[in-house]
Write a structure and sequence with these properties.
Layout: H1 5-10, H2 16-22, H3 37-50, H4 63-70, H5 74-86, E1 90-93, E2 97-100
Antiparallel strand pairs: 1-2
């Protein structure tokens, strides 16, 4: 069986897993070691919603996009989206993705 860098990293061979982590060195933020990564990524997305980068009723990054941009695990990305949804900042449409919720003072258009 031919081994790949991913397999070697899982086997605990030194240096392999570290080089895989370097692939995400260009991520948007430098993670603080004492704060869960999902909270840090949620803060970035929350900030983008607040500053209008993601206006109301527009799509927020998907799990795949969050994992690619921040170098986080799928489960971590799911946690980010769940936290934003529970805060009422986003809503999810099955089959379409997650979207920024309307601001409380914004009247719905009919």
């Amino acid at each position: 069986m031919q081994s790949t860098p991913g397999m070697l990293g899982m086997l605990g061979i030194p240096g392999i897993a570290h080089s895989a982590r370097r692939a995400h060195a260009d991520a948007v933020i430098e993670f603080a070691p004492d704060i869960p990564r999902w909270r840090q990524v949620a803060d970035v997305v929350r900030g983008r919603i607040a500053d209008g980068t993601y206006p109301p009723r527009t799509r927020v990054p998907s799990v795949v996009q969050l994992t690619a941009e921040f170098g986080i695990a799928n489960a971590t990305a799911h946690k980010v989206l769940r936290a934003l949804r529970e805060e009422g900042l986003t809503y999810t449409e099955p089959g379409l993705g997650s979207f920024v919720a309307r601001k409380p003072d914004e009247a719905p258009s009919s």
